[in-house]
């Protein structure tokens, strides 16, 4: 017969096991919150709560659950970040910033996920590489804020990103400087779409090498957007890309709009003016409601006209 002393420790261990499991599960759940916070006076050792915020986006992302949101409490500088899961980063009303001299500002490598960047200011300080570099995702939304000072692209969708959809709204791009030497794909300036599709609206793309550069059969739709002050082209479509511009202004670039067959650009209600070279070059199709004779070096002419249905 077993003594009571031999049974008691085993029973104690069995009773303690559920409590230990609860403790471990509770610790794991509390490690990642649906919403976390960053502040210029925060600390990445904090839990990233509103009252104990983290210091950087990178510090907060490991404590934020997939599908969650990181919010900035003030106009601090929150550092570069790599996003590997569904996530929203909101810079808040002060457009919390990322300074990324000599490197990429945001890398998105989140296969199948939706990533939202809202009200974020990304500054490459004239030596940054890409402002936002998209390796993989289902959808990437960039809403509000500004991107400037990069030697590559403000936003760069890489060829391996596949069928990703990029959506850009109310974003200001300024001051990209091409790498030297640069490959044609690096001469982007503002937005470089090498795969998938993009919708760009209500934005201003200024003072780069190329405003929008679409290639590799990418599908790009642009509306209510200004492409101004680019040293090469305001818009360049090559390698089978298909681009549609509606209610856009393409002005004061080297060439306004250039397409290289089999790529094609379609224009509706768009002004192309005061470009130092041709306004239109290559297979550029018009819906018959555009204004091109507006002080270009040479205006160029649409390759064909489509009916307005």
N-to-C CA distance: 95 Å
| Count of structural domains | 1
Sheet-strand content, in percent, reads 35-45%
Structure classification: mainly beta
Main beta-sheet strand count, sense and barrel state: 12 strands, parallel
Strand ordering within the main sheet: 1-2-4-7-10-13-16-19-22-25-28-29
- Write down the CATH class: Mainly Beta
Tally the helices: 2
- Taking all Cα atoms into account, the compactness measure Rg is 25 Å
Low-confidence runs of at least 5 consecutive residues: 10-15, 18-29
Can you describe what's shown?
The protein is mostly beta strands and 309 residues long. It has one domain: Pectate Lyase C-like, CATH 2.160.20. The protein is built from 2 helices and 29 strands. The N and C termini lie far apart (95 Å). The relative contact order is 0.07.
